[in-house]
């Protein structure tokens, strides 16, 4: 049992793991509700049943009691006939006198409807006197009859027989009568002598039948009478009992005390009420099928059943509604969290349901807001950090370039080439002024082109006019703005990787262009150097940004990143190169006119 | 979702309405259905059929049946009984039939059943039974029991005359068969007289022609006539020691038994035959399968034991 309970608990626990919240609320709530309703209905049903049974018991007892009274009265009347005959005639008169026969006839006539015959038999069983006057059958021996023997055995009592056909008297027709014999031992006077004998009063069976047949115990209830040995005296289906077609449970009640109880006969329950008839020891047995006892209450039972079904139905509906009310907001909240899990940070957190769930929703919403803010902060921080790194890289160029330029100036002064030194110093000063640009990152295309020109002028002196250069730009383009110092790294690359490896016979040239194409600002640096393969050109921008070795394209990637950071991911550098033909570096940016430059700078 | 809820509520509403309607209809008292059953007996409706009639009436009371007893004018006229059968089949719910001739009544009876009127055979069967329910005693057993009683009374090498009434009744055929079967084991000489309806004079003639020591009647009607004939015969032949045995029961026969004009008597439970016949007919009307019963009890008694408790219950049916 304990094992079963444990197994049941474990199964329940396992089951709950795989069910949603609504099921977990509805199922136990409904089960407990149904259990409660069933218990209530059962309690009501049994209460009604008990009430019905009690009422029926009382009613049956009353009917049986009344019938007992009537039967007692009837039997007392018969006993009075016997007493009258014995004490008022036989005890006082000689049977040989005319008076005895006359009195017997008078008594018979007075009770003719109830009495079939009155007769006195002597000790030898011979009829002494009888009414109505008739002969005893020749071959009949009254001494052998039960009624005679009982009277002689228990001389102090009156004896009632079971119903039988009276056969001792000759009757003119072939008719026969069922009687109940009342016999008693008597002492009578004959010819002056006191003799012993038996006084017989044959009661018409219909007399008993009259008392019992009209007893009403419902449509199928009935009442029967049996003697102390269980022999049926009266039964509404007596002829069927005698024919063996019908069976009665009478032998079971021989030793049963008076009262009411339930018996089962042929699988059907019966309410049995037993009452012993005073003097005779007979028993009145009332039988009422339990179906009939309960029949009048079947409507109540049906009503209870319907109410129970209604309650169960409404309870299921209510529990379903309540659980839905509870779980729907939770489900919605869960869906929102699922969306968040998928990275959809713009999901709206639904706030509904009970106070607790609303509070939970608000907490999640607040938490998401905080997370969103934190993530933005992190992104911004990362961007700033990257920008700082890029700018730091940008700044790294300057000391190297400055060193080489100053070294060249020193060399020119030592060699008294003062004009060249002046040019270089002047260019360097202007270059630095543009590079500083009051700390701005966005400058005009005009300044950027000027910066490139100064740079190329310095490098041209340094490289002893090893290359030529040209700058092409419309005045309109020059009004646009650009990220500063993006041309210089490209020019440096063109000089270092394009011009440096050219044969001394070849004339290197660097083209710097700025134009508006397809509503975009294109700034290009082109050389006619040794160029590179398309594969290598593609790899330059893909390479890891953290690789900072010289010649690995780090300057180009820095410029690319800076353009993207300032103007968006769709902008940046395109490399067009052919081996031995040259390289074109195109920096694509949005067209932003000078007036908006300051605004853009502020946004960034 | 709303549609689903509406459907659930609708179904529930219908259930509630039906349940309440059932409760109301149950509480109303339905009128009791009464059936009409015709009882076609063999021979005339006299006191020979009294006990069977009482049994049928008792069952009719219990099963709410209107009973209609029909009998032929001529005792042994099969054709008349066939006509009665056809006539009754038209206006009744079921028929209880005691066929006068098991051969001639076979086909008409089966035809009536085919037409949808249930027939329960009582007291005697038909040749082509075709599973029709039959309520009867073990007639061969009755014959054997009677023969045994005759022999037990010391009749070992006697001339025994058997009077058969309607010899074409299976019940009498069975009794005759059982009687002769038992007698074959003895040295008694049996002669069988067959006739639909014997008169007193005819029986007296038979008794006078051949000196019969034992006469047996296998039918109530014949036994009744035999008793009367025997009285006439014994008046003419006071020294005759002829013994009479028989099968059947009515007031006259019982009186003769008590007066020892009859040595012994076999009585079958006609009350039960009548009762069970009607009961099975009702079952058939209700569409249930009626059951045959060919073992209705019978007793063998004489004047000494006829008032024994169990015997008197059968010989003197309890009637209220």
What does this structure look like?
The complex is a heterodimer of chains A (about 600) and B (about 325). Chain A has helices spanning about 1-15, 20-90, 100-110, 145-155, 205-215, 240-245, 290-295, 300-340, 355-415, 420-435, 445-460, 475-480, 485-500, 535-540, 555-565, 595-604; strands at about 115-120, 125-130, 160, 165, 180-190, 195-205, 220-225, 230-235, 260-265, 270-275, 280-290, 440-445, 465-475, 480-485, 510-515, 520-525, 570-580, 580-590. Chain A has about 600 residues and is of the alpha+beta class. In chain A, helix 2 (about 20-90) packs antiparallel against helix 8 and helix 10 runs antiparallel to helix 11. Chain A is built from 16 helices and 18 strands. Chain B has about 325 residues and is an alpha/beta fold. In chain B, the strands form 2 sheets. Chain B has a 6-stranded parallel sheet with strand order 2-1-3-4-5-11, sandwiched between helices. A 6-stranded mixed sheet of chain B has the order 7-6-8-9-10-12, sandwiched between helices. In chain B, strand 6 (about 160-165), helix 6 (about 170-185) and strand 7 (about 190-195) form a beta-alpha-beta unit. The longest helix of chain B has 26 residues, at about 1-25. Chain B is elongated. The termini of chain B are far apart. The interface of A and B includes residues 238 and 245 of A.
Précis, in short:
The complex is a heterodimer of chains A (604) and B (320). Helix content of chain A is 53%, strand content 20%.
Features:
heterodimer; A: 604 residues; alpha+beta; six-stranded antiparallel beta sheet; five-stranded antiparallel beta sheet; 18 strands; rod-shaped; B: 320 residues; alpha/beta; six-stranded parallel beta sheet; six-stranded mixed beta sheet; 11 helices; 12 strands; 46% helix; 19% strand; elongated
